[in-house]
Amino acid sequence: MATILVIDDEQSIRLLYEDALTEAGHRVFTASSGTEGMRILQEHPIDAVVLDIKLEQESGLDVLQRMVEAHPEVPVILCSAYISFQDDYTSWLAERYVVKSSDPEELIREVEKILAEKGVR
Amino acid sequence: MNNVATHRCLLFPEDPTICPFLTGREDTTLDVLKERLQKMCMSCEAFPLNLEQLSEEQRRVADVLMRLVAAAIWRGHKLTQFREMLEIRDEILDTLLHLSNTVEWALDPEEILYKGLVALTAGTSLGFNRGVALLASHQELVGVFALGPRDRDEAYRIWDEISDRKLTTLDLMHYSPEIYERERTKFEGVLQRFRFSLDDSPFQQVFASAAVCRVDPEMEIAKPLREFYGQTTFWVLPLLSHLKRPLGAILLDNFVTGRDVSSDDLRAVHIFAKQISLALERGLAYAELQEKLRTLEEAHRQIQERQEEILRLKEDIAAGEMVLQLTHSVKNPIVAIGGLARQLTRKLGAESPYAKYTQAIMREAQRLEDLLKDFVKFVDARRASEREPVDVNHILTVLCQEKQALWKATRINCHLKLNTDIPPIMANRRQLYNCLENLVNNAGEAMPEGGDLFIETDVGQGQVIIKIADTGMGIPEEALSNLFKPFFTTKPTGSGLGLYTAKQIIDNLGGSINVVCERGNGCTVLVRIPPAKEQGDGHDPGH
């Protein structure tokens, strides 16, 4: 079991990801903003972060930047409705990029791949 | 001759016709004694002898008479000379006046050169046998026109014709582009060889001195000139702008008559050259102005076209951005609805009486999601995109890995046969992936009962060939021609944008896409893309 932090400003998406990842056997924290996410990262040992690229009032990329600086050991999966950012995510220092889908399979697969690479479990 | 008897010749009173000093047609002077005495006897060789005879008999009177006659003869000669000179001046003045009048409003450099050469070669006054006009262009002197005969035979033929038809200089100056072209063609071979540097001899000297220059056979000059003129002397007239910039030159010679040119003639030639230069400078400036005007008009037209294009592109981009914004803001709720319905379905289990409702929600959300995905790809394909060398084999391998689970579930066997020698192509990796994914998805969807999917790469006629073949139901012939049109679909839930987007992407890469179908035997899609070095600037509407 790993501990995953989901940061997304949309409540329904948080609910969906929390439910799907919990079903997949993970412990899940959720945050609706970058600030909240950073606080959880400080307080809890997190194995991986699922981060929406577009948050309310702030860019997910700024949050990503802060996160990589403060917690370089925590891998981040960028998650977005945009397909066009697929070209660029590595330059932003994210580990993975997942296009949002109603089928959370891909997200769970990517999370598990990362955890396996990091030797978690 | 009936007057002969009444006007007795002093020397041969019996029969004046036996006068040994009369030749040919001069016997007509026998008619009028006074004229005969003045014209013939005064210059007759026998006359001084007669006077000497007389002087022996009547010495003093005869001496005086002899001196008076000598003086009269000398004056007669002088008068004739003056008259001829006046006639020549008159003709030169006339020709100059014609030239001046006729080129006054001429703006066409060809017309000016034509009239200038006619003025210099027509008539008996200056009447050079032949003239060649050169124009300066980019530090070069280029032969543009020549007027006159090519050889002696032609010379006599032309001169006879002019005299028979009583053509005046003014007649000859009548210009038309046809006459110009006819004369130019006669000397085309020579004109083509006449290309000189402004520094070549004798042009450098001519332009430096701004004076007409006589070139004799022993002078060292540019080779094509010597080849053309050989042992013939010729004259070079500089044509200079008012700022002494070389505009061109005129070459004149008398290769038939061999006539020399007096210093008076050269002064006249100089005035002619000035007149031609003046007109030519105006004509050339006008031509340049016209050319500039044309360029400006063309530039103006292009700018207008570009403006329209930019406006269209701006609208396109704005519309594209709007679609993207819209799809993104719609996508999150759809993902949530579909995802949560999926979770709910799982939690309820298949036995639940509510399962069919949650499944319906799930299905509809999925449908909306697929539509959105197509729209986003469609808009994305029209946007500016960075290109890089892309290995098609790699993309297809990744694509097949991604689809493996799906194909396993739908009993599709994928046969991947990749030629490892294919060259890279310049493309946007994501766009090409989307394009090939669309094609592969279509092939997969054509086999709902399962089947074989063949994905192959190869090189043919220097192009990368991608072949995607299925063993599905095929496409009806009437649908085949609409396949790449937007919003055309044979699927009940399709957006009709998948193949259209795929074709746009391939078109932008300078490639082609073809579909061959056999009813009941599946379809084969053939994509051809030129390799990186040949693609150049494929049309990319985003740029």
**Integer average pLDDT of chain A:** 87
Mean of residue pLDDT values of chain B = 84
- Low-pLDDT stretches of chain A are none
**Biggest sheet of chain A: strands side by side, in what order?**
2-1-3-6-7
Number of strands of chain A: 7
Strands in their spatial order, largest beta sheet of chain B:
3-2-1-6-5-4
Strand content of chain A: 15-25%
Label the structural class of chain A. alpha/beta
Q: What is the CATH first-level class name of the largest domain in chain B?
A: Alpha Beta
Distance between the termini of chain A: 6 Å
What about the largest sheet of chain A? 5 strands, parallel
Overview of the molecule:
The complex is a heterodimer of chains A (121) and B (543). By secondary structure, chain A is of the alpha/beta class. Chain A has one domain (3-114): Response regulator (Rossmann fold), CATH 3.40.50.2300. Chain A is 40% helix and 23% strand. Chain A is built from 4 helices and 7 strands; from the N terminus they run E-H-E-H-E-E-E-H-E-E-H. Chain A has a 5-stranded parallel β-sheet, sandwiched between helices. In chain A, strands 4-5 form a two-stranded antiparallel sheet. In chain A, strand 1, helix 1 and strand 2 (27-31) form a beta-alpha-beta unit. Chain B is rod-shaped, with a radius of gyration of 48 Å. Chain B has helices spanning 33-39, 46-57, 59-103, 109-121, 152-164, 169-172, 177-186, 188-193, 203-209, 223-229, 263-348, 355-381, 392-409, 429-445, 477-480, 498-508, 532-535, and strands at 130-137, 140-147, 195-197, 213-215, 234-240, 246-253, 388-390, 412-417, 425-427, 451-460, 463-470, 512-517, 523-529. In chain B, helix 4 (109-121) runs antiparallel to helix 11 (263-348). Chain B has 543 residues and is of the alpha+beta class. Chain B folds into 4 domains: 16-89, no CATH class; 105-261, 2-Layer Sandwich (Beta-Lactamase); 295-383; 386-535, Histidine kinase-like ATPase, C-terminal domain (Heat Shock Protein 90), CATH 3.30.565.10. Chain B is built from 17 helices and 13 strands. In chain B, the strands form 3 sheets. In chain B, strands 3-2-1-6-5-4 form a 6-stranded antiparallel β-sheet, with helices on both faces. A 5-stranded mixed β-sheet of chain B has the order 8-10-11-13-12, with helices on one face. In chain B, strands 7-9 form a two-stranded antiparallel ribbon. Chain B starts with 32 loop residues before the first helix and ends in an 8-residue tail after the last helix. In chain B, strand 12 (512-517) and strand 13 form a beta hairpin. Classes of the chains: A alpha/beta (121), B alpha+beta (543). Chain A binds chain B through residues 10, 12-13, 15-16, 19-20, 23, 54, 81-84, 86-87, 100-104, and chain B through 327-328, 331-343, 346, 362, 365-366, 369, 373, 376-377, 380, 383, 386, 428-430, 434.
